[in-house]
């Protein structure tokens, strides 16, 4: 378990999956996600099982009242290069705008840089996901480039913004 100032991050349990299915079937939540398959419980269970035995980590985000509000994780962990991809989704819309996103990102960065000694954490975000981009910038991420017409979603091609934060820059800012 990892403690933030507002959130507590613990391993995602199988019993959390019905909430994840609900979130992934909420168009407001998935609006800007790069990938949001309309999974039912059985497919979500399969997704959960497939993470086992890999370096991917999926964590449940718990709020101050110990309620499940979302999930986050890392993927594409490459130890030799000391880098990984970070993602997060607050599925409970009532929990948006309360600082849980920023606290989760900061808590994850602290863990990945200080505990795991990674050097680079990166992510890709829809160009129109301004709430997310603003949050990532506040947490030290910088824009590194734009993938033009990277994906077809909601009737048109969309650009993706690539962002990353390096340990040295993050350490200088804390
Ligand atoms: C994106 C997400 C993680 C943000 O978490 P959050 O806890 O709601 O973040 P907050 O609203 O506290 O902070 C976002 C910042 O963006 C700002 N913001 C909100 N809406 C904005 C908008 N439309 N345009 C510009 N900035 C905006 C807020 O003012 C806030 O900045 P501030 O604290 O300096 O005022 C969360 O809303 C979420 O999970 N959304 C659905 C899934 C998703 O898009 N995940 C990210 C995929 S890359």
Number of domains: 1
Mean pLDDT: 95
Q: What structural class results from the helix and strand content?
A: alpha+beta
CATH architecture type: 3-Layer(aba) Sandwich
Strand composition percent: 35-45%
Radius of gyration: 16 Å
Ligand list: coenzyme A
Biggest sheet overview = 8 strands, mixed
- Shape annotation: globular
Number of strands: 8
Key descriptive features of the protein:
single chain, about 170 residues, alpha+beta, Aminopeptidase, eight-stranded mixed sheet, about 30% helix, binds coenzyme A
How would you portray this structure in words?
The chain has helices spanning 17-24, 27-30, 41-51, 100-115, 130-138, 167-173; strands spanning 2-3, 8-11, 57-62, 68-78, 83-90, 120-126, 142-153, 156-166. The chain is of the alpha+beta class and 174 residues long. The chain has a single domain, classed as Aminopeptidase, CATH 3.40.630. An eight-stranded mixed beta sheet has the order 1-2-3-4-5-6-8-7, sandwiched between helices. Helix 1 packs across helix 3. The mean pLDDT is 95. The chain binds coenzyme A. Coenzyme A binds at residues 29, 32-33, 70, 88-90, 96-102, 125, 129-132, 134-135, 138.
Write the layout of secondary structure elements.
Elements: E1 2-3, E2 8-11, H1 17-24, H2 27-30, H3 41-51, E3 57-62, E4 68-78, E5 83-90, H4 100-115, E6 120-126, H5 130-138, E7 142-153, E8 156-166, H6 167-173
Parallel strand pairs: 5-6
Antiparallel strand pairs: 1-2, 2-3, 3-4, 4-5, 6-8, 7-8
Helix pairs in contact: 1-3
The structure holds coenzyme A (COA).
Coenzyme A is lined by residues 29, 32-33, 70, 88-90, 96-102, 125, 129-132, 134-135, 138.
């Amino acid at each position: 378990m990892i403690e933030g100032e507002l959130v507590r991050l613990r391993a995602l349990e199988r019993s959390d999956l019905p909430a994840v299915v609900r979130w992934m079937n909420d168009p407001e939540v998935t609006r800007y996600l790069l990938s949001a398959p309309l999974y039912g419980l059985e497919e979500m269970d399969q997704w959960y099982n497939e993470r086992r035995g890999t370096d991917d980590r999926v964590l449940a985000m718990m709020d101050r009242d110990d309620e499940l509000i979302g999930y986050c994780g890392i993927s594409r962990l490459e130890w030799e290069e000391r880098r990984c991809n970070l993602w997060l989704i607050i599925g409970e819309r009532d929990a948006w705008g309360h600082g849980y996103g920023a606290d989760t990102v900061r808590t994850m960065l602290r863990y990945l840089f200080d505990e795991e000694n990674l050097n680079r954490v990166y992510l890709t975000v829809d160009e129109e996901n301004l709430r997310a981009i603003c949050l990532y910038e506040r947490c030290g991420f910088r824009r590194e480039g734009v993938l033009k017409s990277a994906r077809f979603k909601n009737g048109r091609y969309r650009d993706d913004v690539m962002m990353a934060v390096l340990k040295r820059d993050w350490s200088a800012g804390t």
